[in-house]
Specification:
It contains seven helices and five strands; from the N terminus they run βαβααβαβααβα. The mean pLDDT is 90. It is 54% helix and 14% strand. The chain has a five-stranded parallel β-sheet with strand order 2-3-1-4-5. It is α/β, with parallel strands linked by helices. The protein has one domain: P-loop containing nucleotide triphosphate hydrolases (Rossmann fold).
Length: 182
């Protein structure tokens, strides 16, 4: 099996967008970010898409972008945290691909959102109520799907370079065992 794509999945704030660029650079591939592509396609922010069309409108746009990206070769794709909720998306992500789930504790996630200059209130799925409780609930709902990845990486105590290295080593081992060239 030739691996054409690497999909980075996991909850928001686990490092998907941050890792996609250096990982793609190390492979001489292209880094893509599903959320950025959705905003570009819609000509609007994700928060506004959620506000005006609801989560359903956002997920429909997301599915279109996933379908497009699933045909592109040599790309590292940072998905949105909920991209894996759709069975159709998961099926597309499995084809000629390596799926990696990044994970972090709720405290780490909330800290990273704040450190990146974002506000929890800007995250539609965390708006209203206690953000920590909401992160715990959503992570529990999605945990089994995230863990179904080819590789599961806990990122709390790792630097971006360490995460990238860990993924590269696992990817190279997998491609070597499969008889493909990394």
């Amino acid at each position: 099996m030739t691996i054409e794509r690497i999909w980075l999945t996991g909850f928001m704030g686990t490092g998907k967008s941050r890792i996609a660029r250096p990982l793609a650079a190390a492979l001489d591939w292209t880094a893509l970010d599903i959320d950025t592509m959705i905003e570009r396609e819609a000509g609007d922010s994700i928060a506004h898409i959620f506000k005006t069309g609801g989560e359903g409108a956002f997920r429909a746009l997301e599915a279109q972008v996933v379908e497009t990206v699933s045909r592109m070769p040599q790309v590292v794709i940072a998905t949105g945290g909920g991209t894996v909720l759709s069975p159709a998306n998961r099926d597309l992500m499995r084809k000629d691909s390596y799926v990696i789930a990044l994970d972090a504790r709720p405290e780490t996630i909330l800290s990273r959102i704040k450190e990146s200059g974002g506000h929890v209130s800007e995250r539609p799925l965390l708006a209203g109520g206690d953000p920590h409780t909401r992160v715990v609930e959503l992570k529990q709902e999605r945990d089994a799907i995230y863990r179904d990845a080819d590789l599961f990486v806990e990122t709390d105590e790792l630097t971006p370079d360490e995460i990238t290295h860990k993924i590269l080593m696992a990817y190279r081992e997998r491609t070597t065992l499969a008889g493909t060239t990394p």
